[in-house]
Amino acid sequence: MYACSNSLRRTGEEYIDLYIVTVPERPFQTADNVLRAVTDLLSDGRIRHIGLNDPSPDTLRRMHVVHPVHAVSVEYSPFSVPDQGLRRTCGDLGIVLLGRDHKVPKGTGIDDRVLAIAKTLEGVARGHYSVNAVQIGLAWLFAQADDVVPMPRYVGHPSSVHVHF
What we know:
single chain; globular
Protein backbone atom coordinates (compact mmCIF):
# COMPACT_ATOMS: atom_id res chain seq x y z
CA MET A 1 0.00 0.00 0.00
CA TYR A 2 1.32 3.33 -1.09
CA ALA A 3 0.30 5.16 2.12
CA CYS A 4 2.29 2.74 4.29
CA SER A 5 5.40 3.09 2.13
CA ASN A 6 5.11 6.88 2.31
CA SER A 7 4.73 6.82 6.10
CA LEU A 8 7.81 4.64 6.47
CA ARG A 9 9.80 6.87 4.16
CA ARG A 10 8.75 10.09 5.94
CA THR A 11 9.43 8.73 9.44
CA GLY A 12 12.59 6.83 8.59
CA GLU A 13 11.26 3.77 10.42
CA GLU A 14 11.63 0.20 9.24
CA TYR A 15 8.12 -0.84 10.24
CA ILE A 16 4.89 0.45 11.78
CA ASP A 17 3.76 -1.18 15.03
CA LEU A 18 0.02 -0.64 14.53
CA TYR A 19 -1.24 0.20 11.06
CA ILE A 20 -4.84 1.43 11.18
CA VAL A 21 -6.76 1.27 7.91
CA THR A 22 -10.23 2.37 6.90
CA VAL A 23 -12.27 -0.32 5.23
CA PRO A 24 -14.66 1.30 2.80
CA GLU A 25 -17.47 -0.88 1.55
CA ARG A 26 -17.33 0.11 -2.12
CA PRO A 27 -17.42 -2.21 -5.13
CA PHE A 28 -13.86 -1.39 -6.15
CA GLN A 29 -12.37 -1.56 -2.65
CA THR A 30 -13.96 -4.22 -0.47
CA ALA A 31 -12.92 -5.30 3.00
CA ASP A 32 -11.40 -8.43 1.46
CA ASN A 33 -9.21 -6.38 -0.90
CA VAL A 34 -8.03 -4.17 1.94
CA LEU A 35 -7.28 -7.19 4.11
CA ARG A 36 -5.23 -8.81 1.34
CA ALA A 37 -3.18 -5.63 0.94
CA VAL A 38 -2.63 -5.30 4.69
CA THR A 39 -1.59 -8.94 5.07
CA ASP A 40 0.94 -8.35 2.28
CA LEU A 41 2.36 -5.49 4.40
CA LEU A 42 2.57 -7.90 7.34
CA SER A 43 4.33 -10.54 5.25
CA ASP A 44 6.80 -7.94 3.98
CA GLY A 45 7.56 -6.86 7.56
CA ARG A 46 6.42 -3.28 6.99
CA ILE A 47 3.74 -3.50 9.69
CA ARG A 48 3.42 -5.59 12.86
CA HIS A 49 -0.28 -5.32 13.79
CA ILE A 50 -3.54 -4.46 12.02
CA GLY A 51 -6.03 -1.87 13.23
CA LEU A 52 -9.32 -0.82 11.67
CA ASN A 53 -10.89 2.60 11.55
CA ASP A 54 -14.68 2.68 12.16
CA PRO A 55 -15.60 -0.83 10.99
CA SER A 56 -19.08 -2.24 11.37
CA PRO A 57 -19.28 -5.16 13.82
CA ASP A 58 -19.86 -7.53 10.87
CA THR A 59 -16.82 -6.26 8.94
CA LEU A 60 -14.70 -6.53 12.08
CA ARG A 61 -15.75 -10.15 12.68
CA ARG A 62 -15.16 -11.09 9.01
CA MET A 63 -11.70 -9.55 8.94
CA HIS A 64 -10.72 -10.94 12.35
CA VAL A 65 -11.45 -14.49 11.15
CA VAL A 66 -8.97 -14.10 8.28
CA HIS A 67 -6.29 -12.30 10.32
CA PRO A 68 -6.31 -11.05 13.93
CA VAL A 69 -7.25 -7.40 14.26
CA HIS A 70 -5.51 -5.82 17.26
CA ALA A 71 -7.25 -2.45 17.58
CA VAL A 72 -10.28 -0.52 16.40
CA SER A 73 -10.26 3.27 16.18
CA VAL A 74 -13.59 5.04 16.69
CA GLU A 75 -14.75 8.57 17.32
CA TYR A 76 -15.51 8.72 21.03
CA SER A 77 -16.23 12.06 22.65
CA PRO A 78 -18.95 13.85 24.59
CA PHE A 79 -20.37 14.59 21.12
CA SER A 80 -20.15 11.14 19.56
CA VAL A 81 -20.32 7.76 21.32
CA PRO A 82 -19.56 4.57 19.36
CA ASP A 83 -22.07 1.89 18.56
CA GLN A 84 -22.49 -0.45 21.53
CA GLY A 85 -22.53 -3.44 19.17
CA LEU A 86 -19.02 -2.53 18.03
CA ARG A 87 -17.85 -2.18 21.65
CA ARG A 88 -19.31 -5.61 22.45
CA THR A 89 -17.68 -7.15 19.37
CA CYS A 90 -14.29 -5.70 20.35
CA GLY A 91 -14.73 -7.08 23.87
CA ASP A 92 -15.79 -10.52 22.60
CA LEU A 93 -12.78 -10.74 20.29
CA GLY A 94 -10.24 -9.22 22.70
CA ILE A 95 -9.63 -6.20 20.46
CA VAL A 96 -8.50 -2.88 21.92
CA LEU A 97 -10.92 0.01 21.34
CA LEU A 98 -9.12 3.31 20.66
CA GLY A 99 -11.18 6.44 21.28
CA ARG A 100 -10.26 9.41 19.09
CA ASP A 101 -11.47 12.93 18.32
CA HIS A 102 -12.14 14.07 21.85
CA LYS A 103 -11.96 17.67 20.75
CA VAL A 104 -14.48 20.44 21.05
CA PRO A 105 -16.19 21.00 17.68
CA LYS A 106 -16.21 24.48 16.23
CA GLY A 107 -17.47 26.11 13.09
CA THR A 108 -20.64 26.12 11.07
CA GLY A 109 -22.99 23.22 10.50
CA ILE A 110 -22.94 22.03 14.13
CA ASP A 111 -26.29 21.60 15.81
CA ASP A 112 -27.29 23.80 18.77
CA ARG A 113 -27.15 20.95 21.31
CA VAL A 114 -23.55 20.16 20.41
CA LEU A 115 -22.59 23.84 20.52
CA ALA A 116 -24.14 24.17 24.00
CA ILE A 117 -22.15 21.18 25.27
CA ALA A 118 -18.98 22.54 23.64
CA LYS A 119 -19.40 25.94 25.29
CA THR A 120 -19.99 24.30 28.67
CA LEU A 121 -16.85 22.18 28.32
CA GLU A 122 -14.77 25.17 27.28
CA GLY A 123 -16.09 27.13 30.28
CA VAL A 124 -15.29 24.30 32.68
CA ALA A 125 -11.83 23.90 31.16
CA ARG A 126 -10.90 27.56 31.44
CA GLY A 127 -12.90 28.65 34.46
CA HIS A 128 -12.56 25.80 36.90
CA TYR A 129 -9.44 23.85 36.02
CA SER A 130 -7.16 26.10 33.96
CA VAL A 131 -6.81 23.44 31.28
CA ASN A 132 -7.80 23.28 27.64
CA ALA A 133 -10.99 21.77 26.24
CA VAL A 134 -9.10 18.79 24.77
CA GLN A 135 -7.94 17.89 28.28
CA ILE A 136 -11.54 17.97 29.49
CA GLY A 137 -12.52 15.71 26.57
CA LEU A 138 -9.73 13.27 27.47
CA ALA A 139 -10.77 13.29 31.14
CA TRP A 140 -14.34 12.54 30.08
CA LEU A 141 -13.14 9.63 27.93
CA PHE A 142 -10.97 8.19 30.73
CA ALA A 143 -14.04 8.26 32.99
CA GLN A 144 -16.29 6.37 30.56
CA ALA A 145 -14.92 2.84 30.77
CA ASP A 146 -11.74 0.90 31.27
CA ASP A 147 -12.10 -0.83 27.89
CA VAL A 148 -11.32 2.30 25.86
CA VAL A 149 -7.83 3.65 25.26
CA PRO A 150 -7.78 7.39 24.43
CA MET A 151 -5.89 8.26 21.27
CA PRO A 152 -5.14 11.98 21.55
CA ARG A 153 -4.71 14.18 18.53
CA TYR A 154 -1.86 16.55 18.18
CA VAL A 155 -1.27 19.52 15.97
CA GLY A 156 2.24 20.12 14.79
CA HIS A 157 5.12 18.11 16.16
CA PRO A 158 4.59 14.81 18.06
CA SER A 159 6.31 16.38 21.08
CA SER A 160 3.19 18.55 21.54
CA VAL A 161 1.07 15.55 22.60
CA HIS A 162 2.17 16.07 26.23
CA VAL A 163 0.20 19.35 26.30
CA HIS A 164 -3.04 17.37 26.47
CA PHE A 165 -2.07 15.17 29.44
